[in-house]
Design a protein that fits this description.
The chain is an all-alpha fold. It has one domain. The protein is built from 5 helices and no strands. The longest helix has 28 residues.
């Protein structure tokens, strides 16, 4: 049975790769301006998160997997703090903040659960 961290990593890598290919998956629902700069930002964040997701998926149990999960959690905290500023609608900005925080919480919960289960 795969670790929960690796499952979350696979989901992260998949969604993030989709953002690299189609930034509109994020800019559309959030109402971010559809500009070349915004698309470049979303692609960069997608690439960052795809790499982190692959690290979570591939890292062996222990310190390396914990570090990959920590990178995901910290990245999501930064996204929750900063990205909503690019969203003009307050309710959509709040939804983006919650979504980023939820991804981070999911990665943290998976890593803690795996540690406790020695997976």
């Amino acid at each position: 049975m795969p670790s929960l961290t690796s499952v979350v990593g696979a989901a992260t890598a998949t969604f993030s790769a989709a953002l690299v290919l189609a930034p509109r998956l994020l800019t559309g629902p959030t109402g971010m301006p559809d500009t070349a700069q915004t698309r470049a930002l979303v692609r960069a964040l997608g690439a960052r998160d795809a790499v982190i997701g692959l690290a979570m998926l591939a890292a062996p149990r222990g310190r390396l997997r914990d570090l990959a999960a920590a990178a995901r959690v910290l990245s999501d905290c930064a996204d929750a703090a900063g990205l909503p500023a690019a969203v003009p609608d307050r309710s959509r900005a709040a939804a983006l903040r919650v979504s980023a925080a939820a991804w981070g919480a999911l990665a943290l919960a998976a890593a803690v659960r795996d540690r406790r289960a020695a997976r």
